[in-house]
Amino acid sequence: MIRLSGRLVCMTEEERAAVLTHRPAHEAATRAEAGCISFRIDDTDDPMIFDVSESFRDRAAFDAHQTRTRDSAWFAATRRILRDFRVEELRD
Asked: What CATH number does residue 54 fall under?
């Protein structure tokens, strides 16, 4: 299993608005991907920071997600937002 956790850190209201606008479609598209176990982008106490957590069945599913994301409206709108992510590969 591959697990990603971390934060999106917005520096401007425009970045925050991009997350809020594109989050629902991005979450729905990701949850529908083959191999997605879980995917969440949650608000925090700081309105400029969002917690991100995602789990995928294996490296292939995670890589497919990354490829799809790079070609999405979500990525076009949020690519400049600071991402503070940690990726772990969990083995049985």
From this structure: 3.30.70.100
